[in-house]
Predict the structure.
Amino acid sequence: MVSKHLYGAVRVHDTTLRQIAATFGSRSFTNVDLRAAGMDLAGIMTSFHRSGCIERVGWDGRGKGVWKLSSELVDHYAAEATA
């Protein structure tokens, strides 16, 4: 179970977050990586960041954000997969 802080975002965006977790796990990714994987989330990344679902780990060479799924969500989806 995720914390109360993340619960609302997971409840609303579970399918998308689960897809990110399955595709990238704890690896970092960019919007370009998401689009290449069939997910166009450019308009929602800020919301995911504010809710704590993803963390900015840096910037790429073009000044775009490099993200990773929060460790709490990675652990949550990994635990669900083994249950």
Summary: Residues 4-24 form the longest helix (21 residues). The chain has a mean pLDDT of 90. The chain has one domain: 4-82. The CA atoms of residues 21 and 78 lie 9 Å apart.
